[in-house]
Amino acid sequence: MNNWFTFKREDKLMWLGLLGISAILIVLLSLFTTSSPLYYLERIVIGILMMVVPGYVIMKLFLDHVQFTENPIIDKFMVSFGLSIVTVQTLYFMSTYLRTYAFNVDEDVISSDKIALIVVFLVIAAAVGAKFYLIRKNQKQA
User: Fold this and answer.
1) Distances in whole angstroms, Cα of residue 135 to Cα of each of 61, 84, 100, 107
2) DSSP 1
3) Rounded distance between C-alpha atoms, residue 119 and residue 117, angstroms
4) What tens digit of pLDDT does each residue of 77-127 get?
5) In angstroms, rounded to a whole number, what is the distance separating the alpha carbons of residues 98 and 87?
6) Considering all CA atoms of the chain, what is the largest pairwise distance in Å, rounded to the nearest integer?
7) Rounded-to-integer distance, Cα 107 and Cα 88, Å
């Protein structure tokens, strides 16, 4: 299980770039609005958690070798972002749609942030579970 995640130079540069852009956004939004910097920090952390982390976990577990351009940092970010959109955003939309229209629950009963974090956790857990299953299956065949 220790060798599932090997962080290369490209991975570290991608996260440093994402951290730098996030810091610049927090500072700029704090300067030009009246809201607290902590509010924007929370919003950006939730955004990164929803839009990058699940796709990054899936990419590191299954698609780390994929390369589209000559810059592997951009490739990793594009694949992570795309996989997060496909998995998390689709499940989040379906959950909010079902909750509001099928179950006739008021939208403000459960916080949208909580639903998003639950969906993120479920996507990451499913990816790790699938990888664990594949490794166990290959060990039994060998």
Assistant:
1) 11, 23, 39, 41
2) -
3) 5
4) 999 999 999 999 899 889 888 888 877 777 666 677 788 889 999 999 999
5) 17
6) 62
7) 19
Phi first, then psi: what are they for 7, rounded to 5°? -90, 115
Above pLDDT 90, what percent of the chain? 55
Q: Which of 98, 91, 64, 90 is nearest to 79 (CA)?
A: 64
Token pair in block for residue 69? 């351009």
The predicted model scores a pTM of: 0.87
32, containing H or E segment: helix 9-32
Residue 129, token pair as written in the block: 């579970």
Spatial separation of the C-alpha atoms in residues 85 and 96, rounded to whole Å: 15
Q: Residue ranges of the domains in the chain?
A: 9-141
Q: Which residues contact 134 (CB under 8 A, 6 or more apart)?
A: none
The DSSP symbol for 100 reads: I
Mean pLDDT within 123-142: 92
